[in-house]
């Protein structure tokens, strides 16, 4: 009987190590999904079609009588990847107007998105500082910087903060 105990301890240790490496791999995949969502949202926000300036101005004007006009415009732009809290931060920090003010009525493309993790990243929350390089075709690019925060809600990464 004494000979079995070391075997059982070795087996238990091996199972524990296998479980830890799976958790680490799952955490890496989860964080990668957060980065993908952050990049997609930033690309959407820092890219614009020639009509986007006019559409934003219309939504802004309509928002005085139709509260959902601005939300509808932003939802069309970034889809369901941004929470209500994130939409409020997006508007409060005027992130959506950065490209529109730099190049009104011009097609603009986000060319590069760099993310740097801020603080501790968990399986359910991530925060990054970002630099987005954007420009119309044939013009000098500008860099836009800020911070983006995401939370994992019901298995989906959602932007909850943006500056």
Throw out a few tags for this protein.
163 residues; alpha+beta; Nuclear Transport Factor 2, Chain: A; 4 strands; 48% helix; globular
Task: Explain what you see.
With 163 residues, the chain is an alpha+beta fold. It has a single domain, classed as Nuclear Transport Factor 2, Chain: A, CATH 3.10.450.540. The protein is built from five helices and four strands. It has helices at residues 4-45, 52-62, 68-78, 84-92, 97-102; strands at residues 109-117, 125-135, 142-153, 156-162. Strands 1-2-3-4 form a four-stranded antiparallel sheet. It starts with a helix and ends with a strand.
Number of domains: 1
The secondary-structure class comes to: alpha+beta
Helix content class: 40-55%
Distance between the termini: 64 Å
- Largest sheet: number of strands, sense, barrel closure: 4 strands, antiparallel
Average pLDDT:
83
- Please state roughly what percent of the residues sit in beta strands, choosing from under 5%, 5-15%, 15-25%, 25-35%, 35-45% or over 45%: 15-25%
Order of helices and strands: HHHHHEEEE
Strand order of the largest sheet: 1-2-3-4
Number of helices: 5
Name of the level-1 CATH class: Alpha Beta
Task: Enumerate the spans where pLDDT stays under 50 for 5 or more consecutive residues.
Answer: 7-29
Q: Indicate the overall shape.
A: globular
